[in-house]
Amino acid sequence: MTEVIHLQKLVKDYGPLRAVDGIDLSVQKGEVFAFLGPNGAGKTTTVEILEGLRPRTSGTVRVLGLDPWTENKKLIHRLGVIPQDFKFFEKIHPREAITFYAGLFGKKVDADSILKQVQLEDKATDWYEKLSGGQKQKMGLALALVNEPELLFLDEPTTGLDPQARRSIWEVIRSLKSEGRSVFLTTHYLEEAQLLADRVCIINHGKIAALGTPEDIIQEHGKGEVLSLQAAPRLAEYLRTKVDLPVRSENHTVDVELSTNADILRVLNLVEQSGIPWTGVSTRRDTLEDVFIRLVGKTTESGDLGGAGSGGLK
């Protein structure tokens, strides 16, 4: 497969602070690649280096075979970028916006065809200010497609959208993949990454904490099947004396981590023998969100280091 992004030993320092600490990764042509991390992890810094907005301190960076800092003018016409909280002129129609944007790239495009691609054809002549949050994001996607990009950077494309609007954006992303385009996605919705991404990279403290398919990451870092019962904490205390399995209790839910399927019947028999009242029972596997929290803990309240000290940078 053809690499569209190649990073080797990427480092970015802000004075004494090391925001990105020697990361290696690659993204393949036609891949949806999710880049995840808590605030302050170095995620935004890395993306801005890839987009040619910041220089690196050291390491190798290639985007579509080019250095995004020194060859930005060659690269910009091959990329599509949608920033978080995309905004545009209030008094403009989506069709007009596409035509205007195409002029900036010196291209002639079929605006209605692009609007259909992002499922916005029915809003072609509505003012931007009248569009819903999801429709505005779709317009951002439409503008990012004007120059027929090989690689798109989507920064939190569904943040703040209702579930229906989010799923609509997901459909568009899947359609871009089916066309052979590559998508570099950042998102705080772990479910979104698990559903859309071919591969996921989790970054924390400037280093890669996990890299692979969602399933591989869950398999490597997850805890397997969990049996959950609605019961008082004293049931957990009882089970800890009877089984050599991890038992947790929180908010009147007792979780038992299972080693084999046979453990299910063994634990349920012990629950019945305990005489302690319980209600609902279910089994579940760890999700990508469970693994993310286990690897990086809770997100910080400060912004990403990429947002700091930018006054003197490109």
Give a description of the structure.
The chain has 314 residues and is α/β, with parallel strands linked by helices. The protein has two domains: 3-219 and 293-307, Rossmann fold, CATH 3.40.50.300; 223-285, 2-Layer Sandwich (Alpha-Beta Plaits). Helices cover 33% and strands 27% of the residues. The chain contains eleven helices and 13 strands. The chain has helices at residues 43-50, 72-75, 94-104, 111-117, 133-144, 163-178, 190-196, 214-221, 233-240, 262-274, 288-296, and strands at residues 3-14, 17-28, 32-36, 58-63, 79-82, 151-155, 182-186, 199-204, 207-212, 225-231, 247-250, 253-257, 278-285. Strand 6 (151-155), helix 6 (163-178) and strand 7 form a beta-alpha-beta unit. Helix 3 (94-104) crosses helix 4 (111-117), helix 5 (133-144) packs parallel to helix 6 and helix 8 (214-221) packs across helix 11. It is globular. The model is unreliable at 299-314 (pLDDT under 50).
Quick synopsis:
By secondary structure, this protein is α/β, with parallel strands linked by helices.
Portion in beta strands: 25-35%
Tell me the number of strands.
13
> Which structural class fits the helix and strand makeup?
alpha/beta
**CATH hierarchy, class of the largest domain:** Alpha Beta
Put simply, the count of helices is 11
Question: Compute the gyration radius: what is it?
Answer: 23 Å
